[in-house]
Amino acid sequence: MTTNSNAENSNRRPRLLDRRGFPLLWVGSATSSLGDRVYEVGLMWFVLQQTGSVLQTGAVPAFSLIGRSTLGLLGGALADRLPRKHILIVADIARGCIVALTAILAMQGDVPMSYIYASAFLLSAFSMLYDPASVAALPDIVGEHNLVRANAYLSTTSRLVQILGRAAGGVAIAAFGEASAMAANAISFFVSALMVLLVTFPPPDYISGGPLSIRTLVADTVSGLKYFLVNRALLAVVLVALFANFSGGLTAGLIPAFAEMHLSGGVALYSALLAALSIGEFIGMLVMGALGARLPLRRSLSFSILASGLIYLALSINVAPGGALFLFGIQGIALAISNLPIRTLLQTTASTEMRGRVFAAFIAAVNALSPAATAIGAVLAAWLGIPAVLAISGVLLMASGAVALRIISER
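The structure corresponding to this sequence follows.
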């Protein structure tokens, strides 16, 4: 009996939290995410108080978006060419230094707007170095069998600290001033860098040879885009995910008008709909974290997209405010259950040496499609009405779910 028991123990896959690397990454990610949300509140409030200009305040996230859009693909190429651990540490330290300098200038009472815009650009640029490297490294650290649960834990924590961080940012600003929120974010980046430093990463066998230059990075980026045409399984996941994202994005800008014009509610109902959506997402992430690898990814993705489509069709019919709140909560669950399989399928379908470029290209495509879908949805709503757009979105999502069931292979 002892021999058999030992054999079973030796063959048993290590649980996620038994792996020393993941808890450290989890703590680092949660700490920096919390700092980001606090900083977001502090910086925007500081700019508004310093300038009194809505235009200059609104330009801060615009510069951040430019940084993400222009450097995203190159970040993916670097994640596949350099040791990912080094990238994560450098990105955290760089962001920590940028935010620390912002805090010091804020304490002195005057931060040039040119510096604020440049720092917003640089922070998002270094985030686009960090994010592809982090997503690409995770499967090697936790193992494929723990990947769904690891993604669920990280996403659930990110959602929770998003709520808590913004509230904490307001409290910190009221009590200690905007500079305190900035200093807290700087510290969070340094803590994250320390956590990554303590993690043991597998040997970087994915690194390709040759000197690092702009030409090689561009060539790597192009080869990453071509990889989608070679890996049909990956291409199927990406096409389904992008089409579903576009279909759902048609309604993204319509929720305030839907709450006021079709549910006869005000800002309180609009806020409640968003809260119901967030609560549903949180519940969905908890479900995915609890079930982990026991859920079949293809069917989870397909049925959750189908459910989203059915919910939009139901919302296109006259519903009472209470029914809408319930449907928005279910929609949040469906969104969470669809998003986690997408990320996990991207990580497991792409080869180790291509993961950074695959994730960066996918995010770049989502960033390009999302505003286009929102604009098209607004035009259609002005022409056909909001219920018609909800119905169109529902039909397209159901088509996406049905296609996913046919063309995506189960893993």
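Residues 148 and 294 are 9 Å apart (CA to CA).
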